[in-house]
What we know:
- It is built from five helices and no strands.
- The radius of gyration is 27 Å and the shape is extended.
- Helix 2 (41-55) packs across helix 3 and helix 2 packs across helix 4.
- It is mainly α.
- The chain folds into two domains: 8-119, no CATH class; 130-184, no CATH class.
Amino acid sequence: MARKKSIHYVNNAQFSSAVVDYVTIVEQSRKDGTEIPKVPDYIAQCFLRIAEGLSHKSNFIRYTYREEMVMDAVENCLKAIGNYNLEAATRTGKPNAFAYFTQITWYAFLRRITKEKKQQEIKLKYLTKSGVENFIDVDMSQGDVGQQVATHFVDTLRDRIERVRSTDSEIKELVKEEKKRKRTKVADSDLSEFMA
């Protein structure tokens, strides 16, 4: 029985030739001073497939804002297509647009994750520093018990936020120390006894 061919979501050879053709047209229109043509549908669909495929990688699949990451990546690819270097050297000597735009997509994802983490930090600061307990609707028919429950809930929430923050900072410190240790790693053995 014949082995099945692996199915790629983007054919690199076709995609690269389409990008080269488009970039050539763009460069010519820039020289002529004419209007730059729109990106062909095939190239735009490939951008979307690249971003969608990369977003299903284990690094990015669990983020709730994965769709925003994909759209940011497509936008960045559309902006960067004019900067594609036709003379860029590759191992095969052929253009590799897939690798170029996958790298752009990767960094677009990282920028979106950074933005979302900053927004999350702002939300957490607001929750911890604002008088959240004043905004909780307490059933007055229960009397003081409802207020105690609301106060306990807010205190628990603030405690959890603080624990997550401290754990995050400890992990960051460990990562920094590990990187520093790897950089300053010295040879394990002394070869002087063998050099005599």
